[in-house]
Design brief:
- The protein is of the alpha/beta class.
- The protein has two domains: 165 residues, Aspartate Aminotransferase, domain 1; 226 residues, Aspartate Aminotransferase, domain 2.
- It is 37% helix and 14% strand.
- The protein has a seven-stranded mixed sheet, with helices on both faces. A three-stranded antiparallel sheet has the order 13-14-16.
């Protein structure tokens, strides 16, 4: 398991003056990250790396990549898994291989790579608002955005919570559109009892270092479509059909052997990773329960879930202290919370210059992007860490008015550097 972050030995803070932003000691001597990597059995990983070095087969569809692909396919319950060097390249290749062009409907409340994977290939991302109850693409609004140029829908399973797959699938079938899911957050999660990865034309997973299951850096496309899988394998390897022959336009999207070895090693600890995340999630729920203006996003525990994101929603009308002020106060304590996803893709370049009026049609996206905080979790976070983080959040919220006033005063009269 990952080395845990050291906490200062002093008891939890009870007074505003004790906050680090106001001169108190930091709650943590080392940074507490949202996504510090989980690491499985280190000895087993090192054994695998040794075997790879002995064999001198480092990349190009080696035995560890093949094993990793098969394990992922078996776990999800699909015919094909095509491992990739990262999830962004996987998205780009999946988009191209599935035949998308023109316009594709996509949420703005997502990591920028989702939109960029389309834009990079000359496809126009058409931003659609989200359902405030699920944080995922709103099917009621998708159909309104379909034009003669629309060729596909690219929904995102945000924070591991599944989209309305049934309705989106029905729209895609009826309107003859490609349906590709960005499932970067959702490995190990299910929808109506079926593992995510089995839906649409294909789904794309991320195994980036910050994901609860990582392959150092990596991604994968899963599908039950034989012809699509064939194209994916050609396209990830320059289009080679033989040793020195290319019959297809391709690029270099291959996963290397050491990444696959890490992926296999961490798959063997998957149950432990999920159990730790679930424990952390339940502790956050318990310790932040009843706090005015703050709520923890809940998961449907009748479904499989990876619990890899602890998501706090801040209602500034109740907390008085603003979301971004809370983020700054926690950063001062070395609690490096994140504003996922802020701003929405439509507020980033090149999209904000191109779609200046987009925000009027993305009201839920705008609201959520300004109110969400993701908290530290994973195997590098223990129960005392969570208690300290929750105590700090409670101190901030329960003293929102005075803290807000004090921050305003500091902004007008900043302290000289020490």
């Amino acid at each position: 398991m990952s080395t845990t972050v050291q906490r200062n030995s002093k008891p939890g803070k009870t007074e505003v003056n004790e906050l680090a932003a106001f001169g108190g000691p930091r709650a943590f001597s080392e940074a507490l990250h949202v996504g510090r990597p989980n690491i499985g059995n280190r000895e087993r990983f090192e054994e695998r790396v040794g075997e790879i070095l002995d064999n001198r087969w480092l990349t190009n569809n080696g035995p560890y990549v093949k094993r990793f692909e098969q394990r992922i396919a078996d776990f999800v319950g699909v015919k094909h898994c095509v491992a990739m060097c990262n999830a962004t390249i996987a998205l780009e290749i999946a988009i191209r291989a599935s035949g998308m062009f023109g316009e594709v409907i996509v949420p703005s409340f997502t990591f920028i790579a989702t939109a960029n994977a389309l834009e990079w290939q000359g496809i126009t991302p058409v931003f659609c608002d989200i359902d405030p109850a699920t944080y995922t693409l709103n099917p009621d609004l998708v159909e309104e955005l379909i034009t003669p140029r629309t060729t596909g829908i690219l929904p995102v399973h945000v924070f591991g919570r599944a989209c309305d797959i049934a309705r989106l699938s029905e729209i895609a079938r009826r309107r003859d559109l490609k349906l590709l899911f960005d499932s970067a957050h959702a490995f190990g999660c299910s929808y109506q009892g079926q593992m995510i990865g089995r839906f649409g034309n294909a789904e794309v997973f991320s195994f980036h270092a910050t994901k609860f299951l990582n392959s150092l850096e990596g991604g994968a496309i899963v599908t039950n479509d034989d012809e699509l899988a064939k194209r994916l394998r050609l396209m990830k390897n320059f289009g080679f059909t033989n040793y020195d022959q290319t019959d297809y336009l391709g690029t270099n999207g291959k996963m290397n052997e050491i990444s696959a070895a890490m992926g296999l090693t961490n798959l063997e600890s998957l149950t432990d990773f999920v159990a730790t995340n679930r424990r952390n999630y339940r502790q956050y729920l318990s310790e932040l329960a009843g706090l005015n203006g703050v709520s923890v996003l809940t998961y449907d525990e009748t479904e499989s879930c990876n619990y890899q994101y602890i998501v706090l929603t801040v209602d500034e009308n109740k907390t008085v202290v603003k979301r971004d002020q809370m983020v700054a106060l926690l950063h001062a304590e070395n609690v490096l919370v994140r504003r996922y996803f802020y701003p929405g893709c439509h507020e980033m370049q090149p999209y904000c210059s191109r779609y200046e009026g987009a925000r009027k049609n993305l009201l839920e996206t705008e609201r959520l992007a300004k109110s969400v905080i993701c908290l530290p979790t994973g195997t590098a976070v223990d129960q005392q860490h969570i208690t300290t983080v929750c105590e700090t959040i409670r101190l901030i919220v329960n003293n929102g008015s005075s803290i807000s006033e004090r921050l305003a005063s500091l902004s007008k009269n900043p302290r000289p550097p020490a």
